[in-house]
């Protein structure tokens, strides 16, 4: 029987150098930050409405990345982990060792990272007298392209895999839990994809490579929309600050919400809203009315973007355009 699935590539190793605690996952996030910074500096050099020196740019990214990591970890701990444990063991929140081994920070929340980066931007703008929404417009235009590499890092780690599927590009991840072949639904899916199994044994079924879906849509597609459509349109029409940021929030929220239907929720959390006729098996897609915690955050993110855009359009309609048209002053004594 023809196999209608793929095995996770055996040649992929999560460690850059075997034996050393350096993972490709961490390297990919360094690449992501580097790409975001390079695209930010490109805009600073070519956008007459945002004059920022390289020194100020580095300071801004320091604020943003510091708070991003802080909030991403805190969101993961208190929304996706055992918050009570960490409340009684607060030193473990940022402790990078488990059982005597270096594991880094095992768990980061993207939505927490967005909140943290925004908080970092607020602090920077307060101390350096910058316009927050103009700054966010500039930085988010390039973030999705960097984010693409972050999701590739998740794929290399064989983590954040999707739900069980019968699509021909479904993939068997070695880190995914198997299912007892005595279950009728397990037998049905294994037979449909041509996966051989021995009755009574545990079967590792193909899953959606949801990390790659996210890399494509939340990364490349969203980047193309923001960089080549929304950003030039804003510069040409001189719309108020915050336009690109609003579309970023809505675009990411919509793409992520849709892809979450292919991504398996955390086993210890499951669905936070289960209105579908069936919600007993989180490994399978059963209803659009079964909503995960990540999707709730995506809805909040989309709503925030829509509210911001509505506020921007209201201001634009009432003639609040002069501030957006004035270039910022270049910092004195600093090289651009």
Describe this structure in words.
By secondary structure, the protein is mainly α. The protein has a domain at 167-206. 54% of the residues lie in helices and 6% in strands. It is built from eleven helices and eight strands. It has helices at residues 24-46, 54-80, 83-88, 110-128, 132-140, 143-156, 184-193, 210-237, 243-259, 293-317, 322-325, and strands at 6-7, 97-98, 101-102, 171-172, 179-180, 202-203, 271-274, 290-292. The protein has a two-stranded parallel sheet. Helix 1 (24-46) packs across helix 2, helix 5 crosses helix 9 and helix 9 (243-259) packs antiparallel against helix 10 (293-317). The N and C termini lie far apart (63 Å). Mean pLDDT is 90; it is low at 332-336.
Average predicted confidence as pLDDT: 90
Percent of residues in helices: 40-55%
Can you count the helices? Answer: 11
Low-confidence stretches: 332-336
Jot down its keywords.
336 residues; 8 strands; 11 helices; mainly alpha; disordered C terminus; two-stranded parallel ribbon; two-stranded antiparallel ribbon
SSE topology:
Layout: E1 6-7, H1 24-46, H2 54-80, H3 83-88, E2 97-98, E3 101-102, H4 110-128, H5 132-140, H6 143-156, E4 171-172, E5 179-180, H7 184-193, E6 202-203, H8 210-237, H9 243-259, E7 271-274, E8 290-292, H10 293-317, H11 322-325
Parallel strand pairs: 1-4
Antiparallel strand pairs: 2-3, 5-6, 7-8
Helix pairs in contact: 1-2, 1-6, 2-4, 5-9, 6-8, 8-9, 9-10
């Amino acid at each position: 029987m023809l196999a209608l699935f793929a095995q996770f590539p055996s040649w992929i190793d999560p460690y850059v150098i075997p034996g050393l605690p350096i993972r490709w996952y961490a390297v990919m996030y360094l690449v992501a930050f580097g790409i975001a910074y390079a695209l930010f500096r490109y805009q600073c050099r070519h956008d007459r409405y945002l004059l920022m020196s390289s020194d100020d740019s580095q300071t801004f990214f320091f604020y943003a990345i510091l708070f991003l990591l802080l909030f991403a970890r805190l969101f993961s701990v208190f929304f996706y982990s055992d918050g009570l444990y960490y409340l009684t063991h607060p030193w473990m929140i940022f402790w990078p060792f488990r059982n005597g081994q270096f594991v880094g920070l095992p768990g980061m929340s993207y939505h927490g990272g967005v909140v943290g980066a925004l908080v970092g931007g607020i602090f920077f703008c307060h101390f350096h007298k910058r316009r927050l929404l103009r700054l966010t417009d500039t930085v988010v235009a390039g973030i999705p392209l960097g984010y693409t590499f972050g999701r590739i890092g998740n794929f290399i780690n064989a983590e954040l895999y999707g739900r069980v599927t019968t699509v021909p590009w479904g993939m068997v991840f070695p880190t995914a839990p198997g299912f007892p072949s005595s279950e009728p639904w397990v037998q049905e899916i294994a037979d449909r994809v041509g996966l051989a199994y021995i009755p009574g044994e545990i079967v590792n079924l193909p899953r959606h490579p949801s990390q790659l879906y996210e890399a494509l849509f939340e990364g490349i597609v969203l980047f193309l929309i923001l960089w080549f459509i929304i950003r030039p349109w804003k510069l040409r029409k001189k719309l108020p600050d915050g336009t690109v940021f609003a579309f970023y929030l809505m675009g990411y929220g919509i793409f992520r919400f849709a892809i979450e239907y292919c991504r398996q929720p955390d086993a210890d959390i499951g669905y936070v809203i289960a209105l579908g006729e069936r919600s007993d098996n989180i490994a399978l897609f059963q209803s659009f009315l079964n909503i995960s915690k990540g999707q709730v955050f995506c809805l909040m993110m989309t709503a925030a973007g829509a509210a911001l855009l509505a506020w921007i359009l209201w201001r634009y309609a009432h003639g609040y355009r002069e501030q957006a048209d004035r270039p910022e002053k270049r910092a004195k004594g600093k090289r651009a």
